[in-house]
Each structure stands twice: as structure tokens, then as C-alpha cells.
Amino acid sequence: MWKVTVKGLLAHKLRLVLTALAIVLGVTFVSGTLVLTDTLHNTFTTLFGHIYQNIDFEIRGKAAFADNGTGGAVRKPIPQSILANVRAVPGVAYAEGTAGGYAQFVSSTSKAISTGGAPTIGLSFDPNPQLSALQLAAGTAPKTPNQVVMDEGTARKYHFEVGQHVRILLAGPPQTFTIVGIVRFGTADNLAGATLAAFDLPTAQHLFGLTGRYNAIDVLARPGTAKAGLEHAIAKILPPGVEVVTGQTVANEQSSAINQALSFFSTALLVFAFISLFVGGFTIFNTFSIIVGQRTRELALLRVVGASRRQVFRSVLVEASIVGLVASLVGLGLGVLAAMGLEALLKGFGITLPSGPLVFETRTVVAAIAVGVGVTVVSAISPARRAVQIPPVAALGDHRGDQRESMRRRIYAGSIVALLGIAVLALGLTKPAIQLVGLGAVAVFIGAGMLAPVVARPMASVLGRPLAGILGISGKLGRENSMRSPRRTAQTSSALMVGLALVSTIAVFGASVSKSATSSVDNAVNADYIITNSGAGAAGFSGSVAAAAAHVPGVTAVSTVYNGTFEFRHSLKALTAVSPDHLSETVILRMDSGSGAPALAAGELLVDTTTANTDHLSVGSVVPVKFAETGSSTMRIGGIFKANALRGSFVAGDSFFLSNFNNPLPVAVLLRTDSGASKAGTAAVGGRLSAYANLKIQTRAEFENTQQMQVNQLLGLIYALLALAILIALIGIVNTLMLSVFERTHEIGLLRAIGMRRRQVRAMIRSEAVILSLFGAIVGVLIGTALGVAFASSLKQQGITDLVVPFASLVTFLAIAALLGLGAASWPARRAAKLDVLAAIAAE
Amino acid sequence: MVVTNQTSSEAQAAPAPPAARAVDLVKTYGMGDAVVHALDGINVEFERGRFTAVMGPSGSGKSTLMHCMAGLDTPTSGHTFIGDEEIGLLDDAGLTQMRRDRIGFVFQSFNLVPTLTAGENITLPADLAGAKIDREWFEFLVGQLAIGDRLSHRPSEMSGGQQQRVACARALIRRPDLIFADEPTGNLDSNSSTEMLTFLRRSVTEFGQSIVMVTHDARGAAFADRVVFLADGQVVGEVYSPSAETVLDQMKRLSG
Fold it and tell me: Which domain holds residue A816?
């Protein structure tokens, strides 16, 4: 039996290749993602290990909050006075303080330099080469308040050299420095795209609001000193709230923080890889169903000469495993190439990564093969079961496999699976649990796939009618062919159905998010101009911007907005701060109860209705809060406002905020003018703030556009990732059409013999392809729209307040699907047209 | 002589059961007004170690009879036996076992597996059963059928006569109790037909093989020990030690 299977596979190499392609692409995605993230993981671990290898101890503030959130622990700076005591500890060879904060270079063309959302880091330069993470590549260390050293990555990209002047944006007003040195971060040009500006320690302390304080103290032990004893000795002289840890600990923390971010990235990519494999599974299922149908006679013959059911079942599964294995191995190889490609793609997006050797873990091999073989075999189980049902007598006559299975059973089974899927999906959405949502969606798709044959015949009939009208007999035959076997029509198009359902879900969801972003701006901002940092994901900008903007003629109200994290009732939350003066002219609060501006001025906290409801708070409630800088205290709830995504859930007054956070950067400045928003107004504000190169000055309408654009950018990325799933679905259509052409060789030969032109044969195959694609696309778009509406409405509390169904986009998807179907048909159509008439008729 | 000694201990007391028999066999297709009686209460026995031909006009039920007796098709009512084993009582696994060990098939359209070579096709039943191949028997069959130089060829590279000889070897490789041959010469030219029939005849005479052959060729039927005539799903006559003439006479009588 083994021999029959293998020989059968080798005899149909083309079938093998097309079937395997779907799996190859999916496995490529999986292994590419794993190789890339393993490589990045390794690179960062090595990098941090290298940087901290010489530092024996670091003294720093204890983590301020129990819950560190995603951004790493928040630590309070430590008093400078500790340094002298540490130096006095026997066994300490060297100790120096460090200070860091926001510092952003301005290019020679007056553009603020930032790369793809990576941070712009300012820090103190430690001249001891043993201790410093920064290694001088050229020039000297900074020694005076107007000297700076720059990372090599930025220097190369923006053509800076030692001796040149550079303007730097800071928490305070911008300043100009002289570049005295170029540095590398460990062995890398810079830190994953982050720019580095290093100053001598007193300057850094001054610039970053740390006068008299340090972020940390780095310590070198005298050679031969017992490390454990020394750590203990240092710990003894530290004041409360300050801790000493080994350099290794810091390295581990840093790399694990990066790896957390990486694992998020890898999970996101893997989700799309699995979507591709899921769609590939549909394609495999369809191909194997057709193959089993075409091999009915051969399989029946095997049964006649003594093959048991189990042997037939196994032979189909073995065929699937071999296809899966070959495809996985090819996919694995391509995955390594893809990893390099993805790395290049990320670079294209502006995310520069440190270079390192490609990491190829055993786990990647195991996962790729398990996933590839697994998906193929599981998809082949149902066709294999159908193969087992073939009676031996089918070997004798032209017994065509049982086409007319019970539709009723199909409807029951399909409905049950679909309804279960909907139930799980609903549960997942209300909980909310993303795994349940995914599982439910998978079940919905499988259920829809099972139900699709029920509607395939009538829908193919309707869709084919115009084609029959335009193309005459070719269109008519194409329509008949697509109606001939509703099950095959439905199966072929189901992969495309899943692909388009996902695309439509994202379209509906995205349109709703986009619209909600706009309306949350409308409901939260009253200002004419909104000033933000122009870099994506940048920390903020100088605190002196607001004062400068207030001097622009015509400006009647200025409000500075800050963001920070604090502990609210013992869990980490984001806090927004605005100034209460002229509040209503720049910010809309929509108070539900209590007061707005007066409460903020009094140092009270405003919370949104959602928080008030879940935490059972009302005006006058007193809640425990904790700030990294100032520690634990309590706050009175001064008012409750209507929930809004832009405002956030917690709002405080700016003076309260400034007294509880160290040197915070404003994230936005809101301006109200007496003449309203205008182009001239933007220019006037821009002119006054020209020293701050990192600012973006937008009218409210422009700001809304930017918000929408950010959503659309993300949508574009998701569409690109889903494109692979669509491609796999199209391969499935090509494959099915090829098999159909092969199966109908005799019939096509006959049509040609009685006078059908090649052109007409091609038109016939193309009509069938268009009907198949449109069928899948329509069902998919309908399901996707429903899913999108469900997702969007379940996130109403999270700020998706508006529900939008983008009809124009959905119709475009249908048109594109039809065109893609036409493209998928071109090869099979050409092949059908090229058939030799005589040989085709002779074919059995 | 090799095959028929299973029940030798009882052979003295009672005669060995026939290789196959049908009792009151009925097979109908369709329902209501459109009902067709393919088999209308047939009783027939096929002797062990004999070559029996089944003849009849198209639609007489001869192929249906064979399919039901071989366990390929399920009768509407009645019983069929291979040896003393009732086919109707066997489940799928039992039927598979039966096909592996006790029945061989030769078809009109050869029905070789196109992706396997001639040699692999011949040993396929043994491979499927996981049985060891009797090399000596294999060489003997290959020699007798003169296909030794074709063993590494695919079916598509062989003539019809060669393909049918391979199919013949495949049917015999497991030394089944009974071979069902469904119009084995239907797709062959007259030379190949004669070769094929001569070989089937010899396998009965020389190795004691039992064969049931469906045919509508009187010349072919003349190679058999006995011809059973069917018409409208019933046995309507039989001829022992037939010649082409006696068979043709009988056929004329039946149609006349």
C-alpha cells in the first residue's frame, strides 16, 4: 500500500506541487517569524550582556509600583549623597552616578531626528571605559556643559562629524551643543534605532531635572573582592527605597523587557501565519476531496484485490503526510530567507535592528514540520473517510462517487458547528477572551464551509446568469459546470471565503475605529490648534512650548496636556493632566456629576463613568493613589465625566501632576484663538515655535485626519499580512480548475470536436472561475461584515463608539475577488484550450 | 489438486461443497413501476476445480450475478456462498479478508493500477495482505504467461493482451479458491483472446483452479467445462463439455 501511495504521488507531481504550495507558504510564514524573533532575541541578549558585563553592581531606586505594566519598572531617582558613602565601602574600586532623560537631535535641515518610533535617549557619559555602555568610536568624552557625544548611527545617517554644532530638543528650551565624540552602544551603532545624546554627568543632571540626584550609581568591585560580601556591605549603607543589584540582573531585566516586546510582535505575526495555514487547510481539504473523487476507480480496485478500509484510509493520510512533510521542509528553507526579508522589511519601516547571526533553533524545525504536516493531515481526514466509503464495485462500472449525499445532514451538522462557533465567539467577546474569539471564528468558518454547498447551486446560477448573457454558450457552460457539483464549488471557494471574511472584518472594524477616533476628538477637544510631537510614538516635547505659544497674537487660551502612570486603588493606570485655567475653551469634559475645572484646580481626581461604575465611585469618594516620585497618598474624586478614548479614564490638574512627577514632558498643547483655525494661524504659531523642530501644529480637522491615517496605516499592514491568505486561496482555485480541466479532458475534447473555438474554451473556464470567486467572496464579505460589526460593537466601552460599514470598500473587495478569479483561471484555461482534440476524445 | 484438499477428511463421507453457490438470489434496482429484476430468484452452483462459463444476452443479469456472488454487490434477498461461508453474514473486514484469501478477479478493462509496474501489480494482493510472496509460484506464473520481460513496465507501456496476462497473474498469485473473470477477452484481439482462454483452461486442468467466467463469446465459452445460460435474471439452461456449436445452438434456441 505504501508503494501504491508513493508511486501515485510521484506520478502526479504537478498535483503535489500545487497542493503543497498552500502549506509551503504557511510554513514559511511560521518558520520565518520564529527565526526572525529568535535572531532578535539572541541579538538583544548578547548586546545587553556585553554592555553590562563589566558593571558589578547598580544602585537604584526600588520599583515604585507592584505592577510594572508593559513599560518596565518606574523608579524614583536616588540622592547624590549616596555616592560618597558607596565609594567609601571597602572593595569598591570605582562608582559613578548616571542620569538620563529626553534629548532629541535636530538635523542640519531643522528636522527633529527620530527613527520609526524608537526613543530619543539622553544620558550621562561615564568616561570610565570599563563601566560605560557607550564606547567612543571617534573624538573625546564630553567635559563641559555645551559638549555632547552622538551615536554612530545618527551621525552616519545625518552626516554629523566631530566638531560640528548640533541643536538638541530637551524638556526645557532647545540648546545648541558641540559634538566632541561619536559613540557606539556596546557593539552596535545604536540601540535598535534609538538616538543617543550623551553629556557629562553634571550637565545631564541639570538637563534632565536631576540636580542633586542620580537615576542610578554604577559600581566596579576591586579585583579579588568577594562579590556577595560586597553587595551585602553596599546594601547596608543604602537609605530605604534604594537597592543594589548585580550588573547581570540589570542585563537580564533589559533583555527580558525587549523580549516581551518581541514576543508580542512574534505572536502577532504567528496569528497571521496561522490564518494562512487555516486557509491552506481549506485548500488541502478541497484538493484531496477532488483527488479521492478522481481516484474512485483506483481505490475501489485496491479494495477488490484485498485492501482493507483501514489501508485505504491510511494511504490517503500517508499521501497527505508526505505532501505536508515535503511542503514543511521547503517552507522551512524559505522561512529562513523570509526572516532575512522581514528584517529588511522592518528596516524599510525605519526600525533599525542590531545585526547578529541568524538563529535557527531546533524548536523552529519541530514547530514548522508539526504545523505543516498537522494541518495537511487534519485537512485530509474527511476526504480519507470519503475514500473509505467507496464500494469495491465502483472499480467495475463508471460508478461516480456518491455525489448526492444528504443535504439535510449537512444542514444540521453545519448549523450546529456554526451556532456553536457563534456562541463561543459571543462568550469570547463579552469576557473578553481573545482565544475564545479565535476559536469561535474558526468554528464559524468551518460551519459556513459546511453550509456553503447548500446555497452554492442557486447562487452559482444567479451569478452565472449575466455571464451566460454576455458570453453566450461559453458563459452558459461555465455556469453549468459551477452548478454541476455544488459541493466542489463551495469547497473551492471556501478558502477565498475565509480570506475575504477576514479582510471584511478588518474593513468594518477599521472604519469603525477610524470614525470613533474622529468623534472622540470632537467630543474631547475644543481647541483650534493641537500641538504634538511630530515623531510617531515620541515621548513628548519641551515644557517651554506652551509659554512660547501663549505669546502668539490672538491666542486666548493655552492648555498643556501630560500623560503619566500612577497606581489607582493598587493597580497601574494612565493619568491625563490638563490645566484648569480656561479649561472649557480647549477641552471638553462632558461632566456627568461633580465639577470639572474647580475640582482640577483643587487637586482632585476626575474619573470616567466606566471606572465610576465598575469601582462604585461617586463624587466625594476618597481613593488610595501612589506616584513613583511622591509615594502613596489619597485623592478625592471631584467629578465624573463621560467615557472618551482620547481623554482616558483619569484626569488631574496640571499643577497637581507636575508636583507628583519628575520633569514630565507635555504630550500636547491645545490653543484657542480669537479668530478660529486657519492656514495663516498655523503659520503664525509655527513661526513662533520654529525653535522646536519636533512639533506638529495641526488644526482640529487635521488632527482628526492624522488619527484616521494612523488607523489606516495599521489597516494597510494587516491587509498586507492577510494578502498571503488570499494568495493561498487563489492557489486553491487554480488547483481545482486544473484538476477539473484534467477530469473533463474528454468532455472538452468533445466540445472542441463539435466546433468550440479555443477562445470559447478559455471563456468557459474563466466564467467558472469568476463564479467560484464571486461565490466565495460574497459569502466571505457577508460573514466578515457580521464579524466586524460584532467586534466593533463589543468594544463600545473601550472607545469604539461609532459603527461604520464601509460599503464602497466591501464592493471593491468583491470586484477584486472576481478579477483575481479571472487571473487564477488563466493557466487552467490556456491548458484546456491547448488540449489535442483527438487525444482528448480518446482519453477515457 | 493443490487447492481442493482442505476438506479431504470429510471427502469420503460427504462431497466437498461447491466453490460457490447462490440460493434464491434476487436483485432489484429502482422502485415502484420502474423496478427492474436483474436477478429473479437464481439457484446455481459452481463446482470446485472446474471452469464454468456464464452466458446470456445483455441485461440477462450475468454480471450482477457475479458481483453478488463475489461480495462486490449486495443482493436484495437470497444467499450466496463461497465454499461454505455465507457472504451476506460477513462485515466489511470479513469481506476484505475473503477477497484477500479466497477470491481472484480478472476484468474486461484489465484494471491494473496505472502507477505501478507489472511486477508490482502482480504482487499487490500479497502486499496488501502483508503476506510473503511465493517466489517460485510468481516465477512460474510469469514464465507461463510470458511476461518476464515486461515486469518493470507500466500498464500504459504494454499491449492489451500483456495487460490482461498481468491481471491474470495478479488473480492467481494468492492461489484463491475461485477466480471471477468478467468478460476477460472483451477488449482483446482474437490471438490474445485464444492465448488468454488457453491459459485459463490450463490453470483449471493443471493446477485445479476454480474459475467462473462471464462472457458472451460462444467460442470463449467452449473452453469451459460447463456453460450456464441466463436470461431475464433466471437460469434458463446449461451445457456440459461445450463446443462452440453446441453453445451457439443453445443460444439460438433461447433467443428463438
Answer: 455-523+702-844
CATH number of residue A552's parent domain: 2.40.70
User: Which residues on A lie below 8 Å from B73 (Cβ)?
Assistant: 393
Domain boundary among A630, A665, A693: A693
* CA B225/CA B213 separation, integer angstroms: 11
Q: Is the dihedral of CA B234, B239, B243, B246 positive or negative?
A: negative
Q: Which of A388, A396, A844 to mutate to test the interface with B (most CBs of B within 10 A)?
A: A396
pLDDT at B6: 42
The alpha carbon of residue A294 is apart from the nearest alpha carbon of chain B, in Å, by: 13
In a domain, A23, yes or no: no
Question: Could you say which DSSP state residue A393 is in?
Answer: G
Confidence band for B3, pLDDT divided at 50, 70 and 90: very low
pLDDT beneath 50, residues of chain A = 399-403
By CA distance, what is A5's nearest residue in B? B115
Q: Are residues A483 and A589 in the same domain?
A: no
User: End of a domain among A693, A713, A733?
Assistant: A693
Residues A812 and A710 in one domain: yes
**Pairwise CB contact (< 8 Å): A308 & B96:** yes
Q: Looking at this predicted complex, what is its ipTM?
A: 0.82
Same-domain check for residues A502 and A562:
no
Residue B58: the pLDDT is 83
* pLDDT confidence of residue A402: 45
Gap between the Cα atoms of B123 and B151, Å rounded: 11
Question: 10 Å Cβ neighbour count for A281?
Answer: 25
In a domain, A236, yes or no: no
Nearest to A733 by CA among A597, A612, A638, A828: A828
Q: Please list, residue by residue across A201-229, b when 16 or more beta carbons sit within 10 angstroms of its beta carbon and e when fewer do.
A: bebbbebbbbeebbbbbbbbbeeebeeee
| CATH 3.50.50.60 at B49-71+89-255, yes or no | no
pLDDT tens column, B117-168: 999 999 988 888 888 889 999 999 999 999 999 999 999 899 999 999 999 9
Q: What is the pLDDT of residues A376-406, one digit of tens each?
A: 999 999 899 988 888 888 877 654 444 455 6
The whole-number pLDDT of residue B227 equals 94
**Predicted pLDDT at A400:** 46
Three-class DSSP labels, A570-617: CEEEEEEEECCCCHHHHECCCEEEECCHHHHHCCCEEEEHHHHHHCCC
Q: Which chain A residues touch B174 with a CB distance below 8 Å?
A: 306
Same-domain check for residues A556 and A687: yes
Q: How many domains does chain A have?
A: 3
> In this complex, do B115 and A391 lie within 8 Å of one another by their Cβ atoms?
no
Does residue A311 form part of some domain? no
A802, part of any domain: yes
A573 shares a domain with A673: yes
A562 with A664, same domain: the answer is yes
More confident residue, B32 or A814: A814
Q: Which residues of B touch A7 (CB under 8 A)?
A: 115-116, 120
The pLDDT, as a whole number, for residue B5 is 43
A123/A163 same-domain check: yes
pLDDT of A297-306, one tens digit each?
888 888 888 8
What pLDDT does residue A313 have?
92
State residue B206 phi and psi, 5-degree precision: -90, -35
What pLDDT shows up at residue B1? 39
Give me A320's grid cell.
497527505
Which of A10, A307, A395 is nearest residue B128 as measured by Cβ atoms? A307
Interface test with A, best of B98, B128, B156 (most A CBs within 10 A): B128
Residues A807 and A709 in one domain: yes
Helix (H) or strand (E) holding B126: helix B118-129
| Cross-chain Cβ contact A392/B72 below 8 Å | yes
Contact A303 B96 (CB under 8 A): yes
Are A11 and B115 an interchain contact pair (Cβ–Cβ within 8 Å)? yes
Confidence of residue B21 (pLDDT cuts 50, 70, 90): very high
* Nearest-Cα residue of chain B relative to residue A311: B128
* Side chain identity, residue A307: A
